Structures are given as C-alpha cells and as structure tokens.
Amino acid sequence: MKFIIDDANIESIKEIYEYFSVDGVTTNPTILWKVSKNPFKVLKEIREFIGKDAELHVQVISKRAEDMIDEANHILNELGNNTFIKIPVTKEGVKAIKLLKSKSINITATAVYNSMQGYLAAKAGADYIAPYINRIDNLGFDGIKVAKEIHDILKINGFNCEVLGASFKNSKQVLELAKYGVGAATIGSQVIEGLLKIDAVNCAVETFTNDFENLCGKNKTMKNI
Ligand code: G3P
C-alpha cells in the first residue's frame, strides 16, 4: 500500500519524509487554506522538496467540466506532468475525468462517499479513487466497508485504477486497508505521528538500554565497548 501524506505544511512533510518511507503528497483546498499562503507558492515548494517524479495530488475548484479541464491544464503547467489532478466525483466531475483521461492526464477521483461513485470514476478513467473513510463513518455508514467494496469492484472489473483511502482518523482504519491490500492511503500528519506511539515499545527499548548499561557501563552502545 502506498503511503502518502495528506498535508501542505512543508515542515510536517519534511519531518515525515525524514522518518518514514513516503510515496507522495496529497492536498485539497481545505488543507491549503490551513497553511494560509498562496497555494502555488506552497505547492511549488512541496514539488521541489519531493522531486519532479513524485506523486503530488492537487484539486480543482471549478464546478463545470470545461472549467475543471482549464484549471487542470494550468495546474499541470505550474507543477509538472506527474501531478495528479483531483476531481470531485460529481456528474460534471465524471465528464471532466473522461475528457482529461483522453489526454492521458493523471486523475484522482475525490470526495467519494459511495461505491457507485467509485465505479463511475474508474470507468471514466481515473487512476485513483479516494473514499473518505472517516467522513463516511460520521454519516453513520462504514467507510472501511465502502473502500473495500470499491477495491473489489476495481479488481473484479479489471480497471487500471487503485483505491486511495483518505480521511483517516486513527491507526485501525489505516491498518484495515493495508490488510486488504488497497493500493494507497493518504494520511494527515497528525494521524501519521500517532501510528507508532506505543508505550509498550518505548518501555521495552528502555529496559534493553538499562540492561546493556548495567553490563557495560553508562552511555555504552555496541559501538564503544
Ligand atoms: O484529502 C481529502 C481527505 O483526506 C479529507 O480528509 O480529514 O478532511 O476528512 P478530512
């Protein structure tokens, strides 16, 4: 499963890249708003840091398909051809996906709340389908179930398209999709930071350190005994 950061804060992105194996960055208008700077300034900084071949996902704002296409072309001119254009799966969005894919543009179908949206976006040519796990849960449905069902639809129908799980709020949600073999997950920095906070592990490491120092002396490691 690809591991993608759902954030536009360059310091958080750099920190997570330093520690984890990361496959790219996704953004949306709300994520950009939280950074409070010119969006292209922020996105260009991210692009420069992750490199021209890494996945950067950027969402259009327009509502009509033709306007989405104009906007997508502008985003690609500014940020490079490996940028994935995020299109919300509305009726106009499906039309835009179909037209953009005919020009071989990378597409992430976003704002996905049900499996039919996933099917229609994949059929139109999307490369990724992004179900909003936690937001679906908050509507009283089962976000993980929707993501798994879309994964199955993609595989059974032979679509060249993967689920990109989004809107995670906890480790369990991420793990459920990793166990199922979905293609990718995009996770906010705060949730990523929480994935490995396990007191029992820190406690075990502390005991190993104490035992070794009792054997060899304070601040000793395998390097200086
Ligand atoms: O990038 C879209 C998705 O991840 C939204 O997440 O946390 O706003 O529900 P959230």
TrEMBL record:
Main location: cytoplasm
Keyword set, alphabetical order: Cytoplasm, Schiff base, Transferase
One BP term from GO: carbohydrate metabolic process
Gene3D superfamilies per the UniProt record, alphabetical: Aldolase class I
Lineage: Bacteria, Bacillati, Bacillota, Clostridia, Eubacteriales
Subcellular location: Cytoplasm
GO function terms (MF aspect): aldehyde-lyase activity; transferase activity
UniProt protein name: Fructose-6-phosphate aldolase
PROSITE patterns (UniProt xref): TRANSALDOLASE_1
Pfam families found in the cross-reference section: TAL_FSA
GO cellular component: cytoplasm
InterPro entries linked: Aldolase_TIM (IPR013785), TAL/FSA (IPR001585), Transaldolase_AS (IPR018225), TSA/FSA_arc/bac (IPR033919)
Native species: Clostridium tarantellae
